[in-house]
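Input record (one chain):
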Amino acid sequence: MNSKKAIFVYVALACLIGVLAVHFVITRHSSMTLNQAMAMFDKVGGISNVNTEVKIVFNRFGTRESMELYGTNLNDFPILSGLGKPLFFNTGSVGYSARISIPIGGHYNRRFIFLFDPDYPVEFPYSSSCIQVASNIYVGP
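The corresponding structure, as predicted from the sequence alone:
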């Protein structure tokens, strides 16, 4: 085998090993069980306390404007900010109910908590790829 071919083969193998290693890290750390998700909510006071703050957010901000809540805006929401920061308030659109999205985890295992108004039915096309913690709470990609 000539030296150019050998270098190409070694580089290709190194790239393949790198891709497989990244894939292993992502898939190994991305799974979460229902018990782990429930424990996350228990640490901040439980589902009913989370839903109390969710209702306050929806009552205060409505569902007409998307926004990001961070910094001092979170002072009124200690339970939700205990789950993660910042809070993304997303308006509803066709096929989606208005929701609060909270990023959790690091770069390679990023997930989101999706919180919907508990007083209204949930329209969420990605519910099947998420863990349903309550009728209005999902954790997923």
